[in-house]
Design goal:
alpha/beta; Rossmann fold; seven-stranded mixed beta sheet; 11 helices
Length: about 250
C-alpha cells in the first residue's frame, strides 16, 4: 500500500512541516559538498529542503523525486527551472545516468521494502557516490501508533481497516547497515536520534503528516472524526516521540 506513489496534501504539508525542514537542515549542515555534484533529492516533498540543497550546489544539478505528483508540483512552484523533476516510487527508481549524491529526509520509512530501495539507490549512484539520509527509525512515534491502533480497532472503523497494511517501516541501525552492505554500499555511520515534537496545530499536523495514508482509506465523512479521535486518545498536550534513523554510506 505504501510503496507506490502516494498523494499528499502538499499545500498543508508545506505549512506544517517545520520539524521535517529543521531535521533536513541538520542533515545538510553535516554534508560536505564541492558545489558541483549531480544530486537526487529522494522524496523531495514540497521542496523546502531541496531549495537549501540547491543553494549548496551552484555548479551542480538536483533531480527532485517524489511519489506524489502534488508534492512535485509544489516543489516545481518553489524551485522553477533550478531543478528537474520526477514522479516515481523510489523502490522502482530508474535513472538515465548515475549521480554523485542521493540525499533524502523524512521519506524512507514510507517504503516497506528497504532491500529493494537500497538496491535501486545503489544503481543510481556512481562508485564512490554518497547516500546521506534521515527517516523515521526504530521506536518512532510509538505512543502515537498505540493511539492510532486503538481508534482503528473501534467498531465504527474496524471494517474500513480490515485489510489495511502497515503504513510505516521504522528500521533499526543494525538491520539497515546490513541491508546497505548487501546492496553494495560501504556504511560510514548509521544511528538513531530522538527528536520529540509538540505540533503547534495537532489536528492539521497529524491529519497531514502522520495520518494521511490512513485517512485516505476512509470514506470522506469519517476522516476528520478519526483524526480527532486519535488526538483524544493521545496524551495531552500532544508530544510526538519522533526517532530519526540517520544514514551515511558510500557506493562501493
Amino acid at each position: 500500500m505504501n510503496s507506490g506513489p502516494l498523494e499528499w496534501d502538499a499545500e498543508t504539508y508545506d505549512t506544517v512541516s517545520d520539524p521535517q525542514f529543521e531535521w533536513g537542515m541538520e542533515v545538510l549542515e553535516r554534508l560536505p559538498l564541492n558545489g558541483d555534484e549531480a544530486a537526487v533529492d529522494a522524496g523531495c516533498g514540497s521542496g523546502r529542503v531541496t531549495a537549501e540543497l540547491l543553494e549548496r550546489l551552484p555548479n551542480g544539478t538536483v533531480l527532485a523525486v517524489d511519489g506524489s505528483s502534488a508534492m512535485i508540483e509544489k516543489a516545481r512552484e518553489r524551485l522553477g527551472d533550478r531543478a528537474s523533476y520526477l514522479v516515481a516510487d523510489l523502490a522502482e527508481l530508474e535513472l538515465a545516468g548515475q549521480v554523485d549524491l542521493v540525499f533524502s529526509t523524512a521519506t524512507f520509512h514510507w517504503i516497506p521494502d528497504h532491500e529493494r530501495l537500497f538496491a535501486r539507490l545503489r544503481a543510481a549512484l556512481r562508485p564512490g557516490g554518497r547516500l546521506v539520509a534521515q527517516c523515521g527509525g526504530q521506536g518512532n512515534v510509538a505512543r502515537h501508533t498505540e493511539a492510532i491502533l486503538a481508534v482503528a480497532g473501534r467498531p465504527e472503523y474496524a471494517s474500513d481497516f480490515a485489510h489495511a497494511e502497515g503504513i510505516w517501516n521504522f528500521a533499526g541501525p543494525e538491520e539497515t547497515a546490513e541491508r546497505l552492505e548487501r546492496a553494495g554500499f560501504t556504511v560510514l555511520r548509521c544511528w538513531l536520534q530522538p527528536k520529540p515534537v509538540q505540533p503547534a496545530n495537532p489536528l492539521a499536523f497529524t491529519s497531514t503528516v502522520t495520518l494521511g495514508p490512513l485517512l485516505a482509506q476512509l470514506p470522506e465523512e469519517k476522516r476528520r472524526p478519526f483524526a480527532e479521535a486519535v488526538l483524544e486518545a493521545s496524551e495531552q498536550p500532544l508530544v510526538l516521540d519522533y526517532v530519526r534513523l540517520n544514514i551515511e554510506a558510500v557506493a562501493a
